[in-house]
Amino acid sequence: MHNLLTIDENSLVQQIDSLELKKRNISLCIKRDDLLHPLISGNKWRKLKYNLTAMQTQGKTELLTFGGAFSNHIHACAAAGKHFNFKTHGIIRGPELDLNNPTIKFAKQCNMQLYPVTRIEYRHRHEQAYLAQLKQQFPNAYLLPEGGTNLAALQGCKELAQSLPESDYIICPTGSGGTIAGLIEGVKPSTHVIGIAVLKQADYLKNEIKALSSRANKQTNWQLLCDYHGGGYGKFDAQLWQFCQTMQQQHQLPLEPIYSGKMMFALWQLIKADHFPAGSKITAIHTGGLQGLAGLRYRQLI
């Protein structure tokens, strides 16, 4: 394992120019965290960074984590294992592995050991007894929750917040709540943080965010918008996919319709509805996940 578990974190900030914005005197820039690294990109690197440090500190030489068959997190953990030369294990939801699935194929190329489990077993992934059993089975492994969200993950997302240009609003897609919790920890109280929930019935995430971030409990400078999920996690309609393609054509901004595409689409609707006062400076975070496009093509969803 490399001693220095780091990558260059100075990702590009892209200014978006459009009539909609000029008309309202709003400045919008995109923190292109999808460009952090060719394989370990976006919020996945931000969350992994201090977890890898903790893994080293604890003297663990392997990483064990959880995810669905098309998971960005599984993809990033497998890539990190290969890049930094440590062994990785993935517990995959679903009773069998489809070896033609591009995410699974990639994880195997990175030598990640994959263990498909039934959906019923997968539900135990947060339970202490199940985790204790895994610790016995994999004594050298550092256990990382699904999506990479835990307290160590927050530190990397907090650093991301501190690296952003001066903004009135910061907006990000929200899956497990780790990224937004870290952003709330890292921004000035005068900056408003908006999370766009990418899954249905995501109100429960508000409590998860408060459990992760002590600031989220005390401060009112953040909100989680739960009405832009497009039908639920992994679901999207033709209009959203068309929007993603338009952003690519007009602004050279590549998006996938699962995370950052949903966030940008929601942001665009909020801008058009005059949600933001004139003169607002908005920074949207592209959290990566473009590997997911291959999976959508594979399933003929795009």
Architecture blueprint of SSEs:
Elements: E1 13-16, H1 19-24, E2 27-32, H2 42-57, E3 62-67, H3 72-84, E4 87-93, H4 102-109, E5 113-117, H5 119-122, H6 128-137, E6 141-143, H7 151-162, E7 169-174, H8 178-186, E8 192-197, H9 205-212, H10 214-218, E9 222-225, H11 238-251, H12 260-272, E10 281-286, H13 292-298
Parallel strand pairs: 2-10, 3-4, 3-6, 4-5, 7-8, 7-10, 8-9
Antiparallel strand pairs: 1-2
Helix pairs in contact: 2-7, 3-4, 7-8, 11-12
Could you tell me the number of beta strands? Answer: 10
Query: CA-to-CA gap between the ends?
Result: 38 Å
Cα-based radius of gyration, to the nearest Å: 19 Å
Helix content: 40-55%
CATH class of the largest domain, anyone? Alpha Beta
Domain count: the total is 2
Brief sketch in words of this structure:
Helices cover 41% and strands 18% of the residues. With 302 residues, the chain is an alpha/beta fold. It folds into two domains: 13-38 and 157-298, Rossmann fold (3-Layer(aba) Sandwich); 42-148, 3-Layer(aba) Sandwich (Rossmann fold), CATH 3.40.50.1100.
Description of the molecule:
The structure is a single chain. By secondary structure, this protein is α/β, with parallel strands linked by helices. It folds into two domains: 13-38 and 157-298, 3-Layer(aba) Sandwich (Rossmann fold); 42-148, Rossmann fold (3-Layer(aba) Sandwich). 41% of the residues lie in helices and 18% in strands. It is built from 13 helices and ten strands. The strands form two sheets. It has a six-stranded mixed sheet, sandwiched between helices. Helix 2 (42-57) packs across helix 7, helix 3 runs parallel beside helix 4 (102-109) and helix 11 (238-251) packs across helix 12. The protein starts with 12 loop residues before the first strand and ends with a helix.
